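Tutorial handout. Part one gives the primary structure; part two gives the three-dimensional structure as tokens.
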Amino acid sequence: MTDEKMPIIEEVIEEKPDSIQELRQFLAILEIVSQRNVFRINEFSIIGKFYEEHLKLEKWDPTYEGITNVVNIYDLVSARGGFQINEYEVVSKLYKSLKEKQESLKKTVDNK
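Part two.
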């Protein structure tokens, strides 16, 4: 049996990321956590569809619903222990940025 190291999440976004950089970072995180048995068998098709649809994007201007889906996936992975302790700083930065965008979009939706 080989001692295969699982990949770890590393920061690849700049200090002031735009939405597409955040999306790509999130997709990279999905690739890694999908190898950690975080998702149930029936969830893989949903996560896979989301991944495939968003992987092709050149620009991402998320809607409130779209960013809420990303935040919900993040919450699910976290609740199931999908992140290693040494990854929390990286994933929390991205999560905070996504939550801020979600709150901003919610205010826009609420004001309509």
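Part three, for discussion. The mean pLDDT is 86. The chain has four helices and no strands.
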